[in-house]
Request: fold
Amino acid sequence: MSNAARVPMNDDALSRRDFDRLSAYIYDKAGIRLPPAKMTMIEGRLRRRVRANGMASLRDYCGWLFEGDHLEAESEHLINAVTTNKTDFFREPKHFDYMVGTALPRLRSEGKTRLRVWSAACSTGAEPYTLAMVLDAFARDHGGPDYGILATDLDSEVLRTAKRGVYPASMLDPVPASMRARYSLRATDPKRSEVRIVPELRASVGFAQMNLMDERYPVGDPMDIIFCRNVLIYFDKPTQQKVVRRLADCLRPGGLLFLGHSESITGFDLPLTTVSNTVFART
Reply:
């Protein structure tokens, strides 16, 4: 065969072998399934790590990871690069309607003076800050209950953004105007179209890194409410059941678990009963 007839290998593309090795590692570490259809997306996201490590190509990067024994040292950056972090304020608003109309009145009538709430897979913070707005507004209107929110995510980069609590102003468009006025501050420089969550609300949320693949979740005392939405869709069925069981173990009896509207636990043997659309109570 002549040189002209040879097809050169594209070093800046993942070989199927490297993709399979990366997929297996990410599944084991984070429970995330990466089918071959995701290869182009993964290539794009990993090129930033190629540049950050001063390498010329994805082929070099994968060789450094697997043959150079740098996989564990690079693990956090690798997981950050492949995780999906879509989030919005008041996403799936019927959940918050249920909280205000049903869950919080019930908890208050039961004599709860302080609620423990957990936003698992909190991404850049829109969900826990939405929860804080809802809980604070309800407490102001009804004289309690008090609350504290734990917000966790596997991705260390999104946690840094969440802790800052600074967002493009347009991202808060779904927030009711009265809440935007009370719970956010506009940047003093009009050229910066940004808002920041007010300090009092930020102080009510504690952020921590946590992997839902861990055998147990060190969240302290049982939770009254857990939000873990639009995360299970990235897991296979056996992993989904393990994760939801661990979440249920973190709820007090009667505590509520909120899943994403596209997620289902039908057929799982779990100590949960349905109380509303994708809302479950610990039995």
Remarks:
- The radius of gyration is 22 Å.
- Residues 52 and 157 are 15 Å apart (CA to CA).
